[in-house]
Hints:
3 domains, Rossmann fold, Zinc Finger, Delta Prime, domain 3, globular, two-stranded parallel ribbon, single chain, five-stranded parallel sheet
Amino acid sequence: MKLSFRDIEPFVAQPNPIARVVLVYGPDDGLMRERAKKIARSIVQDLNDPFNAVTLSGDQINDDPARLNDEASAMSMMGGGRLIRITDAGDKLTAQLKDYLKEASQENLVVIEAGELGPRSSLRKLCESAKNAAAIPCYIEDEGAVSNVIRQTLQHAGYDIERDAVSWLAGNLTGDRQRVRSEVDKLITFMGPYKDYKGNDGNAVKERLGKVTLQNAQDCCGAGGEQTLDMLVYNIASGRTGPALKSFNTLLDEGIPSVAVLRALQSHFHKLHLAKARMNEGEQVGQIMKTLNPPIFFKLQDDFKLQLQRWNMKKIERTLGKLMELEIQAKTTGFPADTVCAQAILSLSTR
Length: 351
């Protein structure tokens, strides 16, 4: 079955029992692994349970084609369902999986983890079309989605967070859900855990610890400086070629995919496009800056104003079209995404 965007999170929280095979795939490796683990834990809490869970790689199944059916059809010694987790999967798995789905176990669950799979992928097509399987894409999240994750995680830990702090964190962490979780967990440790105390009725009460400020976020998570996605984007749009390329190479070393950079650039140029259109209609820059959502980080507002002078509507629209083309190409297997992204950075920052 092919899930719509609105159905993905409910499915991850409570998988449809009809789907006995779930393919989780996409360029956001951290989000893919997080969702795969949540789905897997609907069958067993301990993913290393020696009796009820087994992890296989795609290569192991390719070397021993009967292994998938043997493991996925085996009964649990302890009762209940078993988890068969397949990592690093690809289209070579399609034939074995197609045979298994003809008589899939109604107790066991197969969770398949894969990277980017294009629309022509045979594995993806199989899981989208089979009635007893499901395919869940994990694309790079935009700033809005990342902002929600940050707020929800901090609220669960007992904190509110300032709007500017959310905006700054989301702009710098967009690209990998695992990195978002890691940095927010670090921020929670930095701020301190919930405090337990006795209420007037003698019962334990958890005290909210206050609000995370922009300064808190920068003190804890701001060590990257020029290395953040936010600064990379502003260096590019402001014409600072040297710092832009340096930031890009550092982000690549940290494992941030080129697709995340292209998405961040698209998001920024969409903001420029909106602001420029409003300027052309006679609106004052100051009023525009106050109403942009998400807001521009105050230390970058002067840069943004200068960029509005540097870029006209025609150039912005042409740039957005090119960035969209590059993103599509970057998702194509074998395409030299990092090299082409670096060339795009050079081109945009020298205009």
